[in-house]
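Hmm, how's this folded?
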Amino acid sequence: MIRDKKISHDIFCLLKNLEKELRRNPDIIFAYLFGSYGKGRIHPLSDVDIAVYLKENIDFFEKKLEILDKVIELLGTEEIDLIILNVAPGYMVREVVNTGKLLFSKDEDLRLEFILRKLKEHFETAYLRKISESSLLERIKNGKYGIASPY
């Protein structure tokens, strides 16, 4: 996400407390730090990207707000992106897993099963995404992007 404020303090010294606090939450099964902080490539307008997998059968929206409030309080910044992996698209899960740092996992079997399922979905739909992208590029090339299709 594009940010307009710099984080004015060292987040790394606070991440251990964040990990402990997230682990303490009984609804969070596993969590990742990803993005620039996960890769260790921080720049002046970096935000903190966190992804969590929650227990099923809870209100993800309400839980996201609750977790976000706690993270903002702990890190002392609102420059946070919080992703709920349960409802994230395959490409996002792939990005988190490939480039992120696992903070903790309370259930490795569930974590690995989830990742495999999401990556399988992502790769199984690659062909459809390619067709859609080709169609979009063709419409742009022909000056028909933004014009209703006759179909």
User: Anything to note?
Assistant: The mean pLDDT is 86.
